[in-house]
Amino acid sequence: MIGRLNHVAIAVPDLEAASAQYRDALGATVGAPQDEPDHGVTVVFIELPNTKIELLYPLGEDSPINGFLEKNPAGGIHHVCYEVDDIIAARDHLKETGARVLGSGEPKIGAHGKPVLFLHPKDFNGCLVELEQV
Amino acid sequence: MIGRLNHVAIAVPDLEAASAQYRDALGATVGAPQDEPDHGVTVVFIELPNTKIELLYPLGEDSPINGFLEKNPAGGIHHVCYEVDDIIAARDHLKETGARVLGSGEPKIGAHGKPVLFLHPKDFNGCLVELEQV
């Protein structure tokens, strides 16, 4: 069912410093910051040959990653995103196996303009999993 | 400098349950457990079309992930591994930028039989980074 690893998201306390580090210290291709007000984050994409790293920084007081950065002030790996062909079929299959879908259970349009869902980290080894229909 | 994302490692408290979940609930291609006594872990590789997920479970009392699972009993994302062409050149460049290399600073042979180094998570947004020479 799951396909490619679309991205790994890393929440960071200083977006400019993290971008500079990936560009200068790690020598990666780093994009410009993009505000995603619907998702409460500013993101920077790091393009690797086979996938992306998504640096996440809070945008606004209700940002969903404020709590994560309070618990992890230095930052940390926030989630992994797997691609699926049919997000409704994937959701229904996962629910049958007992996995919990976060929120209303209906896909939202994610930061890349595609339908996404998040799965409960307690059901996936402490790992927040995003599914994105591609 | 960094190339492909070689893998994302997820430490899990129950390797059999996590393998079954990736196979049955997420529908992924899941390998057999492999003991890596030199690294104090048993690993299960999950093959995605563009990269791998590495499930990690402690092997022995001195396993380097015992402490992680004590802090995160449900499991969690443990590290990301980026590929490099020349691990000594990468290490020397990173040290010049102020990043700390864990351990002796000399590459060890990793679970895939290739030279690896780990970078201090405090220098990388709370994210443990492995470099693997490919």
From TrEMBL, chains A, B:
It catalyses: (R)-methylmalonyl-CoA = (S)-methylmalonyl-CoA. GO terms for molecular function: metal ion binding; methylmalonyl-CoA epimerase activity. Residues 4-134 form the VOC domain. The keyword Mitochondrion does not apply. CDD domains: MMCE. It comes from the Bacteria. InterPro entries: Glyas_Bleomycin-R_OHBP_Dase, MeMalonyl-CoA_epimerase, MMCE/EMCE_epimerase, VOC_core. Keywords: Cobalt, Isomerase, Metal-binding. GO terms for biological process: L-methylmalonyl-CoA metabolic process. It is an enzyme of class 5 (isomerase). Its EC number is 5.1.99.1. It holds the Pfam family Glyoxalase_4. Belongs to the methylmalonyl-CoA epimerase family. This is methylmalonyl-CoA epimerase.
